[in-house]
Please model this.
Amino acid sequence: MADPVVTKPGLLKRCWQALTKPSKYSLLGVLSVGVIAGVVFWGGFNTALEATNKEAFCISCHEMRDNVYKEYSENTIHYTNRTGVRATCPDCHVPKEWGPKMLRKIQASRELLGKVTGTIDTPEKFEAHRLTMAEREWARMKANDSLECRNCHTLKSMDTEKQKPRAKKSHELAAKNGDTCIDCHKGIAHHKPKGMKEEDE
Model:
């Protein structure tokens, strides 16, 4: 009687056994796979995050390109100025710190939803929702003490003696009252929406 043929376990099965049987090699294997997977995931996540944090991404949909970006690029101090320093969409609308940045990215999904559902897909629809979107952004900036503005501008760094009298008075008053940038600087890069409340003006 012939001996039964004994087949060697397949490569996949041997790898699985090496990873699951209790030994120092299985622990090392699991840790190695985990580290590699973590690096790949984090690298991919960070790459995607940075790609969505560029002006080109922000204006890739016509809702932003044909409305607020057009306003911003026509005649604002943040687009063209004597020093040649430009503040782009993410500079003003996305915090640099990781936690607030993640929160802002989640909030921005509402704007993407507006594009997908067609809520703001024409200039007329965009204008109809402009006040709501602006008030939401003003409230966000008020809540974080105009964090994005303060990445470049701080009251402590201002030499008010070199400012025009009106600006000097306003900035000194703002410092005294604890006001934040967005309290006075609505409409600095975009047209003010119709129907604003008197206190927002």
